[in-house]
Write a structure and sequence with these properties.
Blueprint (H helix, E strand, L loop, with lengths): L5 H22 L8 H17 L23 E3 L8 E3 L2 H15 L9 E8 L2 E8 L2 E7 L5 E3 L2 H5 L16 E9 L2 H13 L10 H9 L4 H6 L3 E11 L12 H10 L9 E4 H15 L7 E8 L2 H7 L1 E2 L2 E2 L2 E5 L4 E13 L4 E13 L2 E7 L3 H7 L6 E5 L7 E5 L24 E3 L6 E3 L6 H12 L11 H9 L14 H15 L14 H13 L1 E2 L1 H7 L7 H11 L2 H4 L4 H4 L7 H12 L1 H12 L3 E2 L7 H6 L2 H7 L7 H8 L5 H6 L2 H7 L3 H12 L1 H20 L15 E5 L7 H10 L3 E3 L8 E4 L5 H9 L2 E3 L1 H10 L4
Parallel strand pairs: 2-13, 21-22, 23-24, 23-25, 25-26
Antiparallel strand pairs: 1-6, 3-9, 3-10, 4-5, 4-7, 7-8, 10-13, 11-12, 14-15, 14-17, 15-16, 15-20, 17-18, 19-20
Helix pairs in contact: 1-2, 3-9, 12-13, 16-17, 23-24
The protein binds a DNA duplex (14 and 10 nucleotides) through β15, β16, α17 and α20.
Amino acid sequence: MKKASAETAARAEFLRCELAEHSHRYHVLDEPTIPDADYDRLLRELEAIEAAHPELIAPDSPTQRVGARPSGAFAEVRHEVPMLSLANAFTGEEVAEFVRRIRDRLDLHADASAMQFSVEPKFDGLAITLRYENGLFVRGATRGDGESGEDVTPNLRTIKAIPLRLRGTNVPEVLEVRGEVYMPRAAFEKYNEVARASDGKTKPMVNPRNGAAGSLRQLDPRITAQRPLAFYAYAIGAVDFGWNSDGALPTTHSRMLARLRDWGLPVSTLVETASGAEGCLDYYRRIGEQRDALPFDIDGVVYKVDVLAVQRELGFVGRTPRWAIAHKFPAQEQTTTVEDIIINIGRTGAATPAAKLKPVFVGGVTVTNATLHNIDQVARLDVRIGDTVIVRRAGDVIPEVAGVVIAQRPAGTQPWRMPERCPVCGSQIEREEGEAIARCMGGLSCAAQRIQAVFHFASRRAMDINGLGERLIEGLCDFGFVASVADLYRLTLVDLIEMKRLSDERDGTTPETVKGGKIATKWAENLIEAIDRSRRTTLARFLYALGIQHVGESTAKVLAAWFGDIGLVRTMPWPILKAVPDIGFEVARAIDHFFAQPGNQRVVDELLAHGVIIADAHRPIMKLSTALTPSRVLADMDIPRVTGKRSEQFAANAESLAAIARTSPKTWRAAGVPADTIEALQEFIATPDGHALFARCDDAMRLIREGSPKDGGETAGPLDGKIFVLTGTLTSMSRDEAKETLEALGAKAAGSVSKKTDVVVAGESAGSKLDKARELGIEVWDEARLLEFLARHPRL
DNA sequence: GCACCTCGAGTTCC
DNA sequence: CTCGAGGTGC
């Protein structure tokens, strides 16, 4: 063996110090400063060094003992049988090696049963031991360093999953049960929800394991009792049947777990037996698939040789058994540092803080950005530039900053504050009272909002301009080729190439060339073509593309269906818009406000002038015209005291709002309207705004009446009014296509299943929506049923 | 006025 | 996908 270099020796010493420190923090202070994955990595590095250079093994090396001394707050308990720690495997190869080592060691007399394993999930909680004497729970302790831990009996007694007395017969005189205290995910979420609502009085927990550890180490068991902890048993320690010698223990680990279950101890239902390395790896894969759906956190699986006699024969290396190994899942948590906290300006001006991270590999991808959502979230976490943070990428795809490692905060950091001015345009950033989000007030004069507006306009569900991405839009805006979405339809090939040249020049990038040294221009041709194609569109897409606040895809569809014409929508006063179902005060006002701005009207004019064609324009539907009575519109104006009933009195026999305005108060008094209500209406009409609103509403109502078909014109599709929900993957068409087709037949496609849903179309691997549909007894179609229906009802 | 349901908007990586 | 907030029915 090669002699260790001074460098290697120094590295080993460094690792020992580092590990001792983290271990102390973890076991004694309950304040983990690095995720387990990092700890494991350091430990494995040290193990590797020590394996190569045994002379470097120091008596105080963490590889020679596990954990640190318990803190003084709880009484120390010596474990009669030491609590084990397991070796870790991270790859299938390491598991195969583990199995091979066992086979080699047992070699001559190894029969098939020696290769049987009890396989179990590895709960991410806190290992404890419970002592039962004559069936009575007498003492419980944490694992501590494996030799002795802390007496947390009063706290453990509060955990309902832990039986205070064993059930059944043949209970040993002394029984020590090993298991894991954990916090179910749902309970963890609920706890944090409450904590977050408490305005900082209760701190949220970083993760369920931390929550379990913290809860168990409460000095006051009443606090522990309020924490929703649970427990699973997975092994036994000391056992003594005393004189009752006919109660011999089972001969395999799996049967022992069954026995523990008989005694009333909770044992996970996920425990199985597996045979050989393949069996273990198959279990690993299956549990891995379920991992995100489990009600508790696990960080891997454990394989244990099932036959206890074989376990005894294999014995230990140091404190880790040769007969068991923990096979860990790839980390879904990592630490990294916050290089910067920037704010992104969205289409609506929303200023959302985001952490720029030193790249880390977590959950299968490299993460460099993580949203911090809003000011409250930053304050809650107290994330600062320079901080070391724990990044998590769990079942959901989007990475989040789970917490800050306060211990590693560099000196001189400042709490982060939302800047007062927009970093892009310098406008004021304001937060509406009671709102969660701060907004840049710059509107379209803010370059960021302009770019986002154009991006939204071009997006697939809006005008669907293929190939117009954020980078290109940035260039077009920065060099003045595009100031509003209408300018897109003015662009020429020359403009695009010139823009590209300017941005290449600015960024110092060399232009891409094709064969013959010519500058690549195909993209520009394609883009011009895509822009041209987008000219022909539908009213719903057009309205959605404009990016009116609160008008998303479905509101745009509603507007398009009811008014049918852009000329109408762009002039409607809000009380008229409000008459449409699903459009309330806020949305109606937002639409009215959008079109009240001359700049926006100009953009619409220019779009139409540049050849944008709304192909599905139609007359307003009759239902709209019938819904729009003067009394209805008056009631929707929210004039103080003028309620639905009063507005009917005002509007009795009146042809229009103007007629109402002309009517003398005497007439109403005669009809029994209270004087103060009449006064309120008169006052409203007297204001310039009120007067103008009356006139606009009258005009709008006239326009709609004149535009509406006289006959019953509208054709009802075969699925009129039916609410569909699509879920899972369809093989013959995309979900969007299916949605469009169903809508063309008159159906409405909703996002989630509820009582109102008529049909759920379930494709391949449908998930929770299908379950919910079954639960509510809603009609479910598979793809074949859908296709059959569509074949019988061709699109009109 | 409150509870429930939708819809809108923002987000990450490849 | 998830949160926040708007719309509507009770």
